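Go through this pair.

…
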Amino acid sequence: MLKLEDYISERNRILKKEQNLFLGSTLELNEKESKLDSHIIQLKCDELDVSYQNSEDFIPRRHFFKCKNEIENSKIFKILRDLPKGNSLHTHLLASVSIDFIIKNITYRDNAYGKVINSVFKIKFLKREDAEKDGWVSLKEMRSKQLNFDDWLEKQLSLIVDCPQDSYPSLESVWKKFKGTFSAVYDMLCYKPAFEEYYYQSLKELFEDNIMYGEFRATPMPLYDLEGTHYKTEDFFESMLKVEKKFKKDHKDFIGARYIHSVYRRISSDDLKKDLEEIILMKAKFPKLIVGLDFVGFEDEGYSLLNFYNDLVSVREKLDFFFHAGETNWFGHTDSNLVDAILMKSRRIGHGFALSRHPQLMSLVREQNIAIEVCPISNQVLLLNEDPRNHPAVPLLSQGFPVVICSDDPATWGASGLSYDWYVAFMAMTPKDCGLKVLKQFALNSIQFSALDDVDKKEAMDVWTKRWDDFISKMLINL
């Protein structure tokens, strides 16, 4: 039997070896960073110590709708808001702008009308005569007749409810409402002036959260105006570029944005062929903006990537893949998309929630250096994982896998930017004594695994490094 001091020595050796495997552990902090690291770890421990007395007090284990305000009051969260987080790599464009902004700005525009279609309240911009002819009602009129109309409207455009457990008793029920929120805003945001205001705000919300670049999952939107003009697909991309150019002029440290084309999982093979033909043509016209392809939608009721193998491999040389895969709690069922995402050379995998159940796939992910886009709040709100301490990405973090923390559809649950997801990941998915190293690695990974070309990636790293150094200095002054 080992003597106590030998036992303690062996114990510490094992723990240290595990610590050295965790994401970010290989980074070397300078003197200034080390000082801030100690401060952050102390704040983290202070916040966690309260939770050890009663696990009900642990903020991230409660539903995001119930704990958002407490997150915002956290000292750790306030640091994360100021911390340069690099790039946002997994956000769906139609859920990227806060509902509050949409309601207060876009829905108060003239000629905004509403109507229930297939149990979904939709908003569209119309001339008065066209609206009345088709049964649309002015939002201005609705507001004059319904008390707290904007509160009601928030619930139509988001998942936010007072009691999520009662409103969404199953994964299928929350996904049904979730899909409805995209349908609710779609016609409204296809109005060209509204779309351009919306997209500018989307970039602004990233920038205000200390993010310098964003990649958006979307489909080309059929833009229109009140004069009856229906714009072409290329006009949608021209609008994106016009807004980005203006935003970069207004915000000198913003690197830019890119578009990842999203295909709905239940698409037919014939429609997919047409869709791919069009996006390849658009890629030729907008080679820098359009960077890749993804499949989106509820995996449990969608087709496997394998169903589209021939069509996908035919465009692999022209479009990078960034596939959602393994966003499921099934084992040996819909999680087989992970195999296909890896074999088809997806550069990143969206969610990868089921990955840690598959040792062979984990080996391939590490070997091929495929980044996993982890979206902890999305996984909680969409009922894959109730308590992020039990998130299946924790084993990936603990073994130093390439992970990026992402936001998915932040506006749908009342978030914005990346700080909320970073907070949940940092507080619930990393060890108590894990501090600035993992946060720095999150940011570095977001740059390394972005779709930026080498020249733009170098620019992004230069901008981020300066902002990082400024952040460290500013934080130390205020200690």
In short: The chain has a mean pLDDT of 96. Residues 456 and 462 are 10 Å apart (CA to CA).
